[in-house]
Design a protein that fits this description.
205 residues, Arc Repressor Mutant, subunit A, 2 domains, 80% helix, 0% strand
Length: 205
């Protein structure tokens, strides 16, 4: 019985890993159950034994992937760190997450465009990002004369866009720079400091 359970768990894990790759590459509309079965090295009947529909399997994968970063964002923004420390930690965590999951941005954006309301609900649940906490910190620092006025949402959009764009445009970035995969990773590691410096320089007086 124990051996069977281990085998069952192993097969299910293979399916989930295969489904993640296929959905990341093709999205739900382009993916077929046969593609997932082939990637997992099993037959289609066995795949349907574990997961009866492509939609249910996709939902599991999307929920897992979509929520990889939001808890970190909330934790960083709600922490006792200074605004400058929050910016540095946010950028570092964001780029690390994307380096570990390079297809994640396209996967998430495709689903948001395909099914906006449902996708956003799955990503955020009922909890919006704590932009108000960022606004509070900004207001205090502006009054002290340490930074220029900026809305919290503008600051967040600036950081996210600078972190995410190279991953969305990776083929173009690598073609323009003639960078190998290894060189691209090194470039993204460097951007942790580059983006932080750019953001801080843009708001500091």
């Amino acid at each position: 019985m124990i051996k069977e359970r281990k085998n069952d768990k192993s097969t299910e894990q293979k399916i989930l890993e295969a489904a993640k790759q296929v959905f990341m590459e093709k999205g739900i509309d382009g993916a077929r159950m046969q593609d997932i079965a082939d990637k997992a090295g099993i037959n289609k009947a066995l795949l349907h034994y574990y997961f009866r529909s492509k939609e249910k399997l996709f939902e599991m994968i999307f929920m897992e992937e979509a929520r990889k970063f939001m808890p970190k964002v909330t934790s960083i923004m709600m922490s006792e760190l200074t605004l400058f420390e929050k910016i540095e930690k946010f950028v570092g965590e964001y780029i690390d997450t994307l380096l570990q999951n390079p297809l994640l941005p396209i996967f998430i954006l495709n689903e948001i465009n395909r099914n906006p309301k449902d996708a956003i609900k799955k990503i955020f649940g009922n909890q919006r990002p704590p932009i108000d906490k960022v606004d509070e910190l900004i207001t205090k620092l502006v009054k002290k004369g340490e930074i220029k006025p900026i809305k919290g949402i503008e600051l967040m959009v600036n950081m996210v866009s600078m972190c995410i764009f190279p991953f969305l445009a990776r083929p173009m970035v690598q073609w323009i720079t003639k960078a190998t995969d290894e060189e691209f990773v090194k470039l993204m590691e460097m951007r942790k400091k580059t983006v932080v410096k750019f953001v801080l320089d843009s708001i500091k007086k």
